[in-house]
Write a structure and sequence with these properties.
Layout (H helix, E strand, L loop, with lengths): L1 H16 L3 H13 L1
Helix pairs in contact: 1-2
Length: 34
């Protein structure tokens, strides 16, 4: 459930920040690994 919310947030961030979506993706990936 938590990962699902993170995925939703990452998609929303992708739309908002655009070019910086790569950085957001890396952060989300790190959170998933923790």
């Amino acid at each position: 459930m938590r990962q699902y919310l993170l995925c939703k947030l990452s998609r929303r961030h992708t739309q908002l920040f655009g070019d910086s979506h790569h950085a957001v993706g890396l952060i989300v990936a790190e959170l998933n690994f923790c």
